[in-house]
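Subject — a protein and its fold

Tokens — whole-number codes for backbone shape
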Amino acid sequence: MRGFTICCGNLTYHPGFQISPPFAMPARPARTLTFKCKKCAKPVQVFLQKVSACSHIQPYQGICKCGEVMRHATGQKDAVDSFIASGDSGWVHHHH
């Protein structure tokens, strides 16, 4: 099965990434991911951001050489939407 991710409503295909049963999910999220910048089309590496022991979200952030900030996250839809929409480095995930 080939790898896909969804970021900001865009489906991204990762041709080198394959999921082989029975190892469908890695034990931990990747520390870095690479995407294409929407502004200049250069590759941008995003880094896993530090969060509490929460498994609801795995937020990533990076800055392209052109200055564009790229944010990506996987996890619960409401937490992901909140992180992507926040647009600042002060975002914090709260449990209610």
